[in-house]
Structures are given as structure tokens and as C-alpha cells.
Give the backbone structure.
Amino acid sequence: MNEKTYFTHNLLTWYDPNDRPMPWKGETDPYLIWLSEIILQQTRVEQGLSYFIKFKKNYPTVFELAQAPEDQLMKDWEGLGYYSRARNLHTAAKYIVDELNGIFPNTHEDILKLKGVGTYTAAAIASFAYDLPYAVVDGNVYRVLSRFFGIDTPTDSNEGKKLIAKLAQEVLDEKNPGRFNQAIMDFGATVCKPKGAICKDCQLQDECVAFRDDRVGELPIKIKKIKKKKRFFHYLMIRRGTGYFIRKRVEKDIWKNLYEFPLLETETQMDSKKLLKQEGFSKFFSNQFYGIQKVSDSYVQQLTHRSIHAQFIEIEVENSFDANKMDWMCVEESELRKFAFPKIIDSYLNHKGSTLF
Ligand code: SF4
């Protein structure tokens, strides 16, 4: 048995008793497989699970998803992050209904045409739904194959990506591609983990190059570690009576179509008194009395390429500014929860919890 055959055989043997039951496993409806794959992109299984169940219930077929009001969809997606996934899901659902008569595409090439579907997701759907022989390649697969075969080429280089994609295709069990793809991802998530790989109980240990050469912690190799840009967000929670001013984010930026309080972004942290004098904020209460009620600590949310540092300044005003002119709406405290906010605002509102709601 050569090393590739050994890998495939032992991986599948490991998988037989270790197949974790999940609501989407064994699913053959390509629509539901697609839904689960989009939800699980950049999301931990434990977190994605309840969202998959909710979406399956609220949007059982592509028709309900295509017809869903965007605000409702964003609200259902709230807390899952990477909101472009929800927008792409919506666009693709409309495309399937309008252009394909509601019939989900059944070739790898056509699945790839759906907005938000890349090669990984297309391979997953094609193999799970239609048993087509396409190997999935994600972070788990990069790690498992780099370690087992002792690959030194950086996995974030074009050469490394091509090499691993080719290798993944070579070790794929073509008779049962869906099961193999599920096995390699589960193996990467539970045994050959990024930190703390469980080598001592690993069924692939005898032929694993990284284990033999004591290089498990070193592989896979990456040339660039992502350098995150810091962004400082200052939210002004203007309270008038029992209402707060919010608006929908429409700019081409993170969190498009989610709601927010008046926001001022700065290059560095800034004192709240200075902030309130900035044009971006002072326009909200020019010529009228206002009182600062509270300035929060800094809240941090990590995104892939940025870390967001947010501070919330609560002020009370007596009169309204011309909100309509500025696209703001005053929403009653009790109604705020009906709107989808970015996670960092949600965290603040949850902390305020009992006092605000
Ligand atoms: S022996 Fe360790 S590094 Fe090698 S495949 Fe198994 S878990 Fe991964």
C-alpha cells in the first residue's frame, strides 16, 4: 500500500466509528446542504448549528429564502458575523428561483456560479448532494495533508495551494467522495487540530511525516501572518424620551445593511469630550442642551483583517434634531431588538440588558 492509499484507507477506517451526527449530515437536498455550508463558512460547528436549524425552519425551500424580506434575513443572521454571506445567499436564492425555476444546479461548474460559492463550497455541495468526485480544500485539509505528507511549501502561496489541491484530489475516495470529504474535515477538526493534535491516538501516525520528524507544531508553513488593522468606533447613543436614534449602514464597508447608532471613526482612541465637539457628532445636538450619561469601556471585536475597538457614549437630549433629513430614525427602547445590529453593539446592549430593556 503506498502512502496515498494508506492515507485514504486509514482516514475512512478512523471515520467509521467517529462520524459525528449533525443535522446536515446524510442530507441529500442540495439546497439544505448549500445552506449549511454557507452558515458553516468561518464559523464553528457549535455556533452554526442553531442557525442551521433556524434557517431550515424559517426558509425550508429556496422559494421562501428568495422571498424573504432582507431585514428579516439579516435579523435571523444576526450574531453569526460575515454578513456578506447572508446577502450572497439571498442573491443566489433569487437567481435560482428567477433563472433556474427553483431547481438547484447539479454540476460543479454551475454550482460555482452561485454568488458566495467558491471552490471549497462547490466541491462540498457537489460531493455531498450528487456524489461528484471533487475534493474539498480548506484550512483543515491544508493542515492534515501538510503534516501527513510533510509538505514544506507554504500553504498560503499559489504553489502551495495548487500542490495541496492536487494532492487532495489524488487521495479522494472517488467511490464515496462526500463521505471522504466529511471525514478529512472532521479529522482535522477533532484529531489533527491546529494546536494540540492528538498524535498519540492517531490512526495515521505510522506513516505521518510530521509525527516521525517531530514537526507537528511547525506544519503547515505560512509565509504571512495576517497583520490586523485597528479601527476605533465611537457610538453615540442619543436618548430622547424613551427612544434612541439608529440608522441602517449603507456604505460599502463592513456590516452593510445592519443597524447602528451614530458613529464616528477615529485613527486612535479619543477622549469623549473632544469627540462630542467633532462635526460628525456635534451636528446631532447643536444649540441645545445635552448631558453625558455614561461612557463605556472599550469593546473589542476581532474580524479577519481588522480589530474593531468600540466605545459607547450615552447622552440625553431634550429636543429632536431633524432626523429625517439625516436618515436617522428614533426607535423606542422596547423596539430596538427588532433590528439587526453588529455583534459589538449587541454585546454592549446585552451588558446594559436590564437597564435598557
Ligand atoms: S500523527 Fe499527528 S500530525 Fe500526523 S496526522 Fe495524526 S494527528 Fe496529524
Remarks:
- The pocket of iron/sulfur cluster is lined by residues 147-148, 191-192, 197-199, 202, 204-205, 208, 210-211, 216 (CB under 6 Å).
- Residues 36 and 52 are 6 Å apart (CA to CA).
- The chain has two domains: 3-212, 229-356.
- The longest strand covers residues 229-240.
